[in-house]
Amino acid sequence: MTRAHRSGRRTRWVAAAAVTALGAGTVRARRRLAALPVLAPAGPYGAPRPPLPGWHLITAPGVAADEATVRAAAGHAAREGLEVVDLVPARLDAESTLGLLRLLDPVAHRTDRCAPGQGAGHALLVSDDVHRRAGLDTAVPPCSTADLLRLVRTLKEYAPDATGWAVAPGLTVPPPGPARHAEELRARGLPPGLLSAARLAGLALLVKCLVSAPRWGVAATALYWLQPAVVLGPARGPRPVGLARDTAARPLRALSGALRTLAAPAADPPDAAGDATRRAAYTAELAAGTDRFFEPRRPDCPWCSAPEPAVRLRTPDLLQGKPGRFTLEECRHCGHIFQNPRLTQDGLDFYYRDFYEGLGGDGAALVLGRMSGTYRARAEMLRPFTTPRTWLDVGTAAAHFCNAARTVWPDTRFDGLDMGEGVHEAARRGWIDTAYQGQFPDLADRLAGRYDTVSMHHYLEHTRDPFAELDAAVKVLAPGGHLLIELPDPRSRAGRLLGRYWLPWFQPQHQHLMPSGNLEQALTARGFTILAVQHGAAHQSNGDFLGAVALAANGLAPDPDAPWSTVPATPARRAARSAVQAMAVPCYAAALALDALRTVAARATDGGNAYRLLARKELG
């Protein structure tokens, strides 16, 4: 077989895959569009009425909603039990409507308490209660569409199962622009440059398919070209302005839009003074070096005290790119893997900073908000054994698990404990009933015997002394109570295959990674009975190959604008990072496919990258 023939076959497969993906995306968009309710105002109201009681209308600049639309939206909210309604303009342009339908599944987002809030970014109707709890009574009102997009994400957190969307024919909006498009993408947590590069790559792929595999290439191009008309043409509700014109010119408009978005000026730092202060603090802290962040290396295993552990892995910080190198060692006797030398408390504070809160808060929330299926599976594990009444989630972070677990156990009281400030925000949102901030062992005496269920999900590996955490759980649990633990599985084959790029190593945050047998022995010694252990069912679906690509890309080109960066943030370094991220796009696509296959195999063989264990504290 000649090289040209092999290349042609590959192109046909790629074109066939493009047709499949475009077809599936078109069907999905039609389904989501059909799920969007359309407001039907009863008709014009005579004289203007007083402001609608119980509701606040928040609009972006240039957006206008007539009184009939506002009252229809309030009526829709009352019928559906909603506290937040995002109003989608019926005359939104075609590409903006399609982009919204890619992000928003109205049915799934309504029922998924952890799904991040998405909206059109033009108008929001908010109940008095949510308006007050979210602090909007004293907040500065939104001044742009991007502000409104950020606001709907916040409001969805305060009304996790009472946020909805409706098409509003009476809503008028200004025309879109490339600079505003880039700003809106950033507000959604999406990188404009990377998405524009991916769009250009997609157009180039269609041209390649047309040349090398005309039959499939024509099908893929036609489906892409006609997608706006197929999705939006015969639909009720949205009536995009110039749909026929936009459909006819779609490839040219897509090319122009991607180039103009790439050329749009970079966003101004929202808090330039804060960024300067943060950079100065990191610079001062790093001037003394990173050696002071480490304790002396220990010669034995912290789990079983066996001597002479072996080096398993050495790696820099691939998560944030902060300076320092870290070593994981493995006990030759029990298989326990631990950071050696271990970080001091000051070191942990340094490397945790701006990861879950601060600069990294939005990214962490985005990841945690996409794990609802995992959260529900954890909560369901108790169903054959008990009905929880009082549940303490240790290491709860922003309490995404507790928020999702309420759909499984609606009558359970969920409390959360964590070191970060986010635990108090979780209480204000209503995701947990009571927030405890501090170290679990320090609070154990105060909470002794209060809970019939305690959970530790991907928490124990972060702690300095896992035994002290287990002893705290013994104190806090009432006799007969249940302890649910989920951890990375250090014996996962992916860990050896991917080396330092296996995400669950998670250096420098993970201090201990223990095989399930070790944990079972430790719990049995503390008076627990092991009820169930899951391996395949606990597998994290995107924790292997997708995580490896992300770590590799970040390692090749760390963010030069990070306040802890030790290299100048020159245009060349920024361009190099953008280039690496753009080249990683096809690798992400391949990694997603590999992770899907890996998940199927993990479920079938009961050998994933994590394990989940449920134990009962015996009476007496």
Task: Give the helices and strands, then pairings.
Elements: H1 3-35, E1 55-59, E2 64-65, H2 67-80, E3 84-89, H3 94-103, H4 106-111, E4 123-127, H5 128-133, H6 145-158, E5 163-168, E6 171-172, H7 178-187, H8 192-212, H9 214-232, H10 243-248, H11 250-263, H12 272-286, E7 310-316, E8 325-330, E9 337-339, H13 345-352, H14 361-368, H15 372-380, E10 390-394, H16 400-405, E11 413-418, H17 422-429, E12 434-437, H18 440-443, E13 451-457, H19 466-476, E14 477-488, H20 493-498, E15 512-513, H21 516-525, E16 528-534, H22 545-556, H23 571-583, H24 585-605, E17 610-617
Helix pairs in contact: 1-8, 1-9, 6-7, 7-11, 8-9, 8-11, 22-24
Keywords: Methyltransferase, Transferase
Pfam families: Methyltransf_23
GO biological process, one term: methylation
Task: Provide tags for this entry.
single chain, 620 residues, alpha/beta, Rossmann fold, seven-stranded mixed sheet, four-stranded mixed sheet, 46% helix, 15% strand, globular, methyltransferase activity, transferase, methyltransferase, Class I SAM-dependent methyltransferase
What does this structure look like?
By secondary structure, this protein is of the alpha/beta class. Among the domains are: 134 residues, no CATH class; 260 residues, 3-Layer(aba) Sandwich (Rossmann fold). The chain is 46% helix and 15% strand. It contains 24 helices and 17 strands. Strand 7 and strand 8 form a beta hairpin. It is globular, with a radius of gyration of 26 Å. The chain starts with a helix and ends with a strand. One of its GO terms (biological process) is methylation. Keywords: Methyltransferase, Transferase.
